[in-house]
Design brief:
Pfam family, one: Trans_reg_C
Helix content: 40-55%
Structural class: alpha/beta
Main location: cytoplasm
GO molecular function: phosphorelay response regulator activity; transcription cis-regulatory region binding
Distance between the termini: 26 Å
Strand order of the largest sheet: 2-1-3-4-5
Subcellular location: Cytoplasm
Number of strands: 12
Radius of gyration: 19 Å
Function: This protein is a positive regulator for the phosphate regulon. Transcription of this operon is positively regulated by PhoB and PhoR when phosphate is limited.
Bound molecules: calcium ion
């Protein structure tokens, strides 16, 4: 199983546009959830915790700008990158002026290639391992593109699950992950795995990371889960 792919939420009221986006995003290997309006969008933001939102400006009732404001006002969701789609460049200027907190803007009609490039730029920042980047923490290096891990310059041998687990931890050093969050990210949301399974794999990961000596870098957070560093 590959590293859980980034989940993209598409908020667009026009069905044809939505389908084009879904097709292209899935072709790029992303998982896609879709909303037609603001209420659906806010529900999916809470339920799916998407890695990125492609948000149309022109929506019925609640505008894209308002959704953007709400997402960026909530500490639990403000780190989710938002790319706004706008029909006219004047709107983009207005959006910029309003400083809604959108991370990027694309003017319709847009080139799919350009939109995907902008999307990857955002995700390289927030989901670097899933985008094949090279990550480092202390003396550990994880090369997601080459699928290799080194500690103190020496190659380590990790099973596929331990590799995904380490990728997840290395994307956010210091973040405390609950077992449920790790299961969602490492195994995927649709698969039922007992939370104790995660403890087994953390044990294996620690052993692999300490194979050539060195401290245990994966901290157990009592009553919660795990953190790197
Ligand atoms: Ca629209």
């Amino acid at each position: 199983m590959a590293q859980a792919q980034p989940c993209v939420l598409v908020v667009e009221d026009e069905g044809a546009q939505r389908e084009v986006l879904k097709y292209n995003l899935e072709s790029e290997g992303f998982s896609v959830v879709m909303a037609e309006n603001g209420d659906e969008a806010m529900l999916l933001v809470a339920e799916e915790q998407p890695d990125l939102i492609v948000l149309d400006w022109m929506l019925p009732n609640v505008s894209g700008i308002e959704i953007c404001r709400r997402v960026k006002a909530d500490p639990a969701t403000r780190q989710i990158p938002i790319i706004m789609l706008s029909a006219r460049s004047e709107e983009v200027d207005r959006v910029r002026g309003l400083e809604t907190g959108a991370d990027d803007y694309v003017v319709k009609p847009y080139s799919v290639v350009e939109l995907m490039a902008r999307l990857r730029t955002q995700l390289r920042r927030t989901r670097p391992a899933s985008m094949g980047e090279r990550l480092s923490f202390s003396d550990i290096i994880l090369d997601a593109g080459e699928h290799r891990v080194f500690r103190g310059g020496l190659p380590l041998h990790l099973g596929p699950t331990e590799f995904r687990l380490l990728s997840t931890l290395m994307e956010k050093p210091g973040r405390v992950w609950t077992r449920e969050q790790l299961l969602d990210r490492v195994w995927g949301r649709d698969i039922y795995v007992d939370t104790r399974t995660i403890d087994v794999h953390v044990g294996r990961l620690r052993k692999a990371l300490m194979a050539n000596g060195g401290d245990n870098p994966v901290r157990t957070v009592r009553g919660t889960g795990y953190a790197l560093g």
